[in-house]
Design brief:
This protein is of the alpha/beta class and about 500 residues long. Helices cover about 40% and strands about 15% of the residues. It contains 15 helices and 14 strands. The longest helix is centred in the middle third of the chain and has 28 residues.
Length: about 500
């Protein structure tokens, strides 16, 4: 094996391994690839462990670059909607994967002195890499996209453990499991093969059985006398930037909502992100809304909202007269999408944000549940905010379900749309809350508190979904403690590693 790896360029091989690892992620979910890629990558580090730190950094960096380039290529699609920005597409493909790859490069440097063929190295590597995945989820606004834990999204039974430990902890466990065949490379024999296969199969089987039983025992109650109507209008995203098309779009949304069908039913109509370019435009539609909607009906939609202290990407709850009952201003903004860090500087060199309109959105101040009536509340999350596991302080508030509005047209017809949707499933299981999601172009869905997809639209299809709301009686362990569980896990593993290392010295 060593002679084979020595015959090819180590940096090219690291890049190739990272690129191939993306096949394990949604929408492909070739999880078995991870059991091949991680051991080979560890062995690549092993045969280069005596080299300089910069060499190990480069190997880790190129591994990360290949990984993020191959699964985040679709970020460049967002530049198609402004001709003045298309020249930046190559820069995007270079810049974003490079920034994220730095985390993996540094992680590899930190494990350099501990690289060996011992089990403690696998644990230490998994601990460091998962910790750096956590760091990239919080630093510089955070971008926790495509953690290795998302490879299990094809099996809802296998991810029920999220309700106890959360995504970052599952990410840590996943890396350990994927790395175990590493020992077969060093000493390939039938005994080791048997032990590794039995151990991996046992862990995965027990986890599946555990999750299957949790689903069977789930006590889900339907909220009585209440329906949610979810719209996926599949409107061309270029049309949404033109206020001249706004009236046609609103007419389309009203017609597809078909409120008269539900006139005897308390109903919440959920429209996607970005319906209005200015919330002040709502005044023009008061008569139209009053003519079509009934008093027992409310509408949720996305709009830009202008105020003295800035302008916001907002979620609005309207009554049947198009009057704003409640609103939420997005807190977690997309870097270079909704705001530009150091905007004044970048404006000087011609770099502006991607979304329509120029300048940066302002951050909202707080996230609180929105009441539909005296009994039903929802927690608002706008688009990108659904990807943050345990970083939204959701344990401090009580609510009945999560409502996520999105605009996935930016991703085009790419893997990004499916990847974004999968995050919604993981948040549902973690929090034990029903997730309602409306996307203009993408995937609109009703996801039960156990992550099972109740109803969903097809990809890039004009569709409407009518759904119930399911409530889970008991809180999940993760919803109570959130990422404190990951902190505890990393601390305990660190202590154990120090103990075993000293024992082996």
């Amino acid at each position: 094996m060593q002679s084979f790896l020595g015959s090819i360029n180590k940096y090219f091989f690291a890049l190739l391994l990272g690129g191939l690892l993306s096949a394990s992620l949604p929408p492909y979910n070739f999880t078995l690839v991870s059991f091949l890629i991680f051991p080979l990558f560890l062995y690549l580090l092993f045969i280069n462990k005596d080299g300089p730190a910069k060499s190990i950094f480069s190997i880790g960096f190129l591994f990360g670059y290949g990984y993020f380039l191959s699964n985040l290529y679709w970020v460049s699609y967002s530049l198609n909607f402004d001709n003045s920005l298309t020249i930046l597409k190559p820069l995007t493909l270079l810049f974003i994967p490079s920034i994220l790859a730095i985390f993996y490069g540094v992680a590899c440097v930190l494990v350099k002195k501990f690289i060996s063929d011992k089990f403690y190295f696998v644990i230490f590597f998994s601990l460091v890499l998962s910790s750096f995945d956590f760091l990239r989820g919080i630093l510089f606004s955070g971008f926790p996209w495509n953690l290795f834990a998302y490879t299990w999204s094809w099996s809802v039974e296998s991810i029920q453990i999220l309700s106890f430990v959360g995504t970052y902890s599952l990410n840590f466990f996943s890396i350990i499991i994927f790395c175990l065949p590493y020992f077969l490379i060093h000493k390939p024999n039938y005994k080791r093969l048997f032990i590794v296969l039995v151990f991996v199969f046992s862990v995965l089987s027990l986890n599946f059985y555990f999750g299957e039983n949790l689903i069977k025992k789930d006590n889900l109650n339907i909220v009585p006398n209440f329906k949610v109507v979810l719209l996926q209008p599949d409107q061309n995203i270029n049309d949404l930037s033109n206020e001249d098309n706004e009236a046609k779009y609103v007419d389309k949304l009203i017609n597809e909502s078909n409120p008269k069908i539900y006139k005897n039913q308390e109903t919440l109509f959920v429209w996607p992100e970005g319906v209005f370019s200015n919330s002040a435009n709502l005044r023009q539609y008061e008569d139209l809304f009053a003519k079509n909607f009934f008093e027992n009906q409310k509408i949720v939609l996305g709009s830009t909202k202008y105020e003295k202290n800035g302008f916001f990407n907002s979620l609005l709850l309207l009554n049947n007269k198009a009057e704003i009952i409640s609103s939420y201003d997005k807190i977690k903004l997309v870097p270079f999408g909704e705001f530009v860090p150091f905007y004044s500087f970048f404006e000087m060199i011609g770099l502006k944000k991607i979304t329509f309109g120029y300048g940066s959105f302002s951050n909202g101040s707080s996230r609180t549940p929105i009441s539909i009536n005296k009994e039903i509340t929802f927690l608002p999350l706008i688009c990108y905010e659904i990807i943050f596991s345990g970083l939204l302080d959701l344990q401090k508030i009580d609510y009945d379900f999560i409502l996520n509005i999105s605009e996935d047209g930016w991703f085009g017809k790419s893997a990004g749309t499916v990847q974004h949707f999968v995050h919604s499933q993981y948040r549902a299981i973690e929090q034990g809350k029903h997730v309602i999601r409306s996307s203009n172009q993408g995937i609109t869905a009703s996801i039960k508190p156990n992550g099972i997809i109740d109803k969903s639209t097809g990809f890039l299809k004009n569709s409407t979904i009518v759904a119930d709301i399911y409530k889970k009686n008991a809180k999940t362990l993760f919803s109570i403690y959130e990422n404190k569980i990951f902190y505890l896990l990393t601390f305990l593993c660190s202590v154990l590693l120090l103990f075993f290392r000293k024992k082996n010295e």
